[in-house]
Design a protein that fits this description.
By secondary structure, the protein is of the alpha/beta class. It has a single domain, classed as Rossmann fold (3-Layer(aba) Sandwich). Helix content is 28%, strand content 25%. Helix 6 links the parallel strand 7 and strand 8. Helix 4 packs across helix 5. The radius of gyration is 21 Å and the shape is globular. The relative contact order is 0.14. The mean pLDDT is 93. The structure holds iron/sulfur cluster. Iron/sulfur cluster binds next to loops.
């Protein structure tokens, strides 16, 4: 991956403000600012990790990109047949050709698979909906997909309950691959799995990326999960990206206090390095009433006077390392050695 690799996805100042409605007349009394001005690009074949606590807006970003939601503001561009095409205002019908290329793997393999459908039906569903193949060709394609994700072809007539959590997630991955996509939103794909199984599914996703040239937006609440699969990592807090950097650099030299706090919970590979866990005071503020200035200031142990008054600029502090913090130049934050 380098700077000459073409950009596949370009998200610019994306916002999703959900209205809060009250009373019989459903009067709008405020907005939940779930996503509040998010910008990033993803290059072809790259994995961008998107990390933050639950409720920070990361899943909403994934749904906006796939146009399962219509953004309140901002723009989404996707490279299609060599041209950057704007998806922001496309209708359901206009999105159909793009949906073949843009897929999602869901968090929960227990609820995302229809228990009344066989593996054959689940994996072949996208092929049937898009009318891509039928008959013997359809069965052959499902067989190929099951082999690709490490499942036994003999099990294609079984139902989801007959499989373990890791195997069910493999079924979900096979379904996502059915239409030969180029871009996949992986929405917490291993969070519901045992730690021992997580590594197997992450390795599978990495192998598939190498074999098929896939591009991932990998969403997780856990920095230790995204490290080994991501080329770059973006950290989200209260609807904003607060830091974005190449993965190795972000873990070793974080520049935002929120990233430092998240990293303090990641186990270090160096037994001599004792990182003290940073417990953030209070809860994440409500996205309907975000604090003024830096949104993180009520919980930041480094906050100064300026932090509650002025919104920090989003700036490139070193090449390819972006941060929104007034004090980023002065702070010496603690990273971790994880491998
Ligand atoms: Fe903390 Fe201030 Fe930086 Fe915000 S701008 S992260 S409050 S030091």
């Amino acid at each position: 991956m380098n700077l000459t690799t073409p950009i596949l996805l370009d998200v610019h100042d994306l916002k999703m403000h959900f209205p809060i409605q009250r009373g019989l007349l459903r009067r709008v009394v405020g907005h939940v600012r779930a996503v509040d001005g998010v910008s990033f690009t993803i290059r072809q074949g790259e994995t961008l990790g998107l990390v933050g606590e639950s409720g920070c807006g990361k899943t909403t970003v994934g749904r906006l990109i796939l146009r399962a939601l219509k953004p309140t503001a901002g723009r989404i561009f996707y490279r299609y047949n060599g041209e950057m095409v704007e998806l922001t205002h496309k209708s359901r019908r206009e999105m159909k050709p793009f949906r073949r290329e843009m897929q999602i793997i869901f968090q929960d393999p227990f609820s995302s698979l229809n228990p009344r459908m066989t593996v054959m039906d689940i994996v072949s569903e996208p092929l049937r909906i898009h009318g891509v193949v039928s008959g013997d060709e359809l069965r052959a394609r499902v067989r190929e997909l099951l082999e690709q994700v490490g499942l036994r072809v003999q099990h294609m007539n079984r139902y989801p309950y007959a499989f373990s959590g890791g195997q069910r997630q493999r079924i979900g991955i096979a379904r996502a691959l059915a239409l030969k996509p180029k871009f996949i939103v992986c929405d917490e794909p291993v969070s519901a799995l045992d730690v021992s199984i997580q590594a197997q599914v992450l390795n599978l996703l990495r192998d598939l990326q190498a074999d098929l040239g896939l591009t991932y937006l990998f969403i997780s609440h856990d920095l230790s999960v995204v490290e080994h699969i991501s080329d770059r990592v973006a950290v989200m807090y209260l609807g904003h990206i607060v830091e974005l950097a190449p993965a190795e650099e972000l873990y070793a030299v974080p520049r935002h206090p929120y990233t430092e706090a998240l990293l303090s919970a990641v186990p270090s590979a160096d037994p001599d390095l004792k990182v003290q866990r940073i417990i953030l005071p209070g809860d994440v503020p409500s996205p309907s009433k975000p604090p003024p200035g830096c949104k993180f200031h009520p919980r930041c142990r480094y906050a100064g006077d300026i932090c509650s008054r002025e919104v920090p600029l989003w700036r490139e502090i070193t090449p390819d390392h972006w941060v929104a913090c007034h004090l980023a130049d002065a702070l010496k934050l603690t990273g971790v050695v994880t491998s």
